[in-house]
Each structure stands twice: as C-alpha cells, then as structure tokens.
Specification:
elongated; mainly alpha; two-stranded antiparallel sheet
Amino acid sequence: MKKSTYGTAARRGITLAAVSMAAVALSATSANAAAPAQSPSNVWDSLAQCESSGKWNTNTGNGYAGGLQFSQSTWAAHGGTGSAANASREQQIAVAQKVQASQGWGAWPACAAKLGLRGGAAAPQSAAAARQPAAVSTPAKVPARQAAPKAAVQAPRHAAPVSVSGQTYTIRSGETLSTIAGKLNIAGGWQSLADANAATISNPHLVYPGQVLQLPG
C-alpha cells in the first residue's frame, strides 16, 4: 500500500508541475500579445504636412507644386514627368528620395530644420529616426528647389532690358527670386528681378544667401 501511495503522490506532483509551467507559458504569450509593435509615422508625410499642409495635389502658382513643393526644374531633373501636383503620393516620394540623396535635407530648409532632419544620407522611415544625430555632419547644401539641371545652367539666358532703381536687397537663407519678388511686390515678378541682375545671375533658379540683388526701377 505504501508503495502505491508514494507512486500516486509522485504522479500528482508531476501533473501539478506541468500545469504550472503551462500557465506561466500562457501568461507570457498573453503579455506579448498585449503589446503590439507601433509603426512610426512616415517622415515624408511629416515633411508634406509642413510644406503643403499634407496636400499632395497642391499647385498655388508660386513656382512649386505637390505635397513636397518641387520646382518644375528639380522635379524633371530627378525623374518626374508632367507636374508634381498631378503625381501620386508614392511617385512624389520616389522623386523626393532622389532629391534628398543628392542634395540632403537642405532641399527643404525650413521644414527640415523644424522636423530636426539633418545630413545627406538616405531618407529614414520615421520622423523619430530622422531626429537622431548623424555620425558625420555634412555641410549645408543649396536647396534643391532652386537647383536646376546642369544643361539649364549652361544654357544662355536671354534677359529683357530692365532699368534698376539703385536700391539693393541681400538674399537671406531659404529665399528664392520668387519669394523675394512677392515680398517686395516687384512688378513683373521674379522674371523682372532676374533680368535686372542678369550680369550676376546666370540661372534664376540658383541663388545664394548673401548675394546682393539690384532692384528694378
């Protein structure tokens, strides 16, 4: 009888241990299932929200179009066809990745600074990842929105004769001829401003901070 009693007790002990282990494993599985991975927001959506309020089909007539505000020359130079405003979000992101790879985040100076995007490496998948400091700092580059293809830079520009007023304006970081013309209410817009400075500006889409402009009369 004693032998039988010991055997029964041993079997019960083994059964209880097995049940306890199963319960622990089930608890661990439930805990893991209760904490799903969170997908980070896409950095391009954050950039588009800053540049155009997230409107991928915007075209206000200011010289830039699409959710990421491409100039027509930059859009075409990096593989875009037609107008950026008519392209899908995915097509605009594909072109933006090429622009970012060649120009860095300086292509979107104001919004990149606002979002903490730095350097010239390939675009990260989330804004949180983009805010991590780069291992090697890269010098700021000229915004790609003002950059033009090499062929356009080399081609001669036929400027119309424009008289100058004698007043000057010094270009600030992030400004273009278009924004300056709008700010100063230049008659004839950026084209008139470019013609007045044809001697020093060969490509109206490529200007630099610190450059002094002659204002048309």
